[in-house]
Amino acid sequence: MDVPPTPFVNFVVVGVQKAGTSALFHFLAQHPQVAMPTVKELHFFDDDRRCWDAPDYRDYHGRFPRRRGCVVGEATPSYIWWPGALARLADYNPRLKVIALFRDPVDRAHAHWRMSRARGLDALDFSTAIRAEGRRLDGLAPQAPERRHLSYVARGFYGQQVDRLYDVFPRRQVLMLRKEDLANDHAATLARVFAFLGLPPAKIEPCRIFEGAASEAPAPQDVAYLAATYAADLARFALLTGLPVSAWAGGCARGPAPADGRCG
User: For residue 186, what are the contacts with CB-CB under 8 A and spacing of at least 6?
Assistant: First the structure.
């Protein structure tokens, strides 16, 4: 019996919350020459409990279908942010291709807080939480779950994250996208993604990904506080990526959050 080879992951999708990573995972899984796991976010390379001195990839590879003639990939957004995850990915496959999705960092912070509140992980209001973040996270163990749940401000420093990404992967192996690209220019953006992965074109219909009920926007003073906090880093991010960000730093967060987004 001709058994297909063990999958070897060729690409990952990384990025930030509610930036289109779920939609892109869904679209990629529909391409006939892409093999993806049945679930998004395997969280293999950001798992500090594993022995990374001599990593065992067998259980990781076991999550992927065995299909010949396919590129193999997964989507775990936090790989770009979690300490050590990018270096572990590079050790696993130095030729790995990385697709990174971003959104307005102020909008992202508010969405992150709403998610933590909905899950019962944070009792603070948004204004208090973003100003207390440094104190709340200071002294926590590196692997403490609060670092994932309460890092509303920290995860918005995209320039720092891209600097770390380019430290371990050459730019030719990285494709940078904004949430707006996938939502507003679906076909052209997917064509870029498929070309980046060396795949033939495929017609994939757009979808609507539920984002939760409409919610109150952050207060203007909180938008201003975060916009000022991110200003220098956002300039660095724009310089590194070439992505247009003039509408960011609060532009998306000033109106009510949508009940759903085309590809959010």
Answer: 206, 262, 263
- The domains located in the chain, with CATH, are 11-261 (3.40.50.300)
Q: Do 79 and 85 touch, CB atoms closer than 8 A?
A: yes
The predicted structure's pLDDT at residue 208? 65
Residue 252 has pLDDT above 70, yes or no: no
Question: In degrees rounded to 5, what are phi and psi of residue 106?
Answer: -70, -45
31: phi > 0 → left, psi -120 to 50 → alpha, else beta; which? Answer: beta
pLDDT in tens, 92-130: 999 999 999 999 999 999 999 999 999 999 999 999 999
Residue 3 has pLDDT above 60, yes or no: no
pLDDT, tens only, 194-250: 999 999 999 888 876 545 555 678 899 999 999 999 999 999 999 999 999 999 975
Q: What are phi and psi of 134, to 5 degrees?
A: -60, -45
Q: Do the Cβ atoms of 182 and 263 come closer than 8 Å?
A: yes
Q: Identify the H or E element spanning 90.
A: helix 85-92
The amino acid occupying position 82 is W
Task: Give, as one character, the DSSP assignment of residue 3.
Answer: P
For residue 213, give Cα distances in angstroms to 66, 115, 191, 216: 38, 11, 31, 10
Alpha helices per DSSP H over 144-209: 146-149, 158-168, 179-184, 186-196
Taking the C-alpha atoms of residue 34 and residue 8, their distance in angstroms, rounded to an integer, is 12
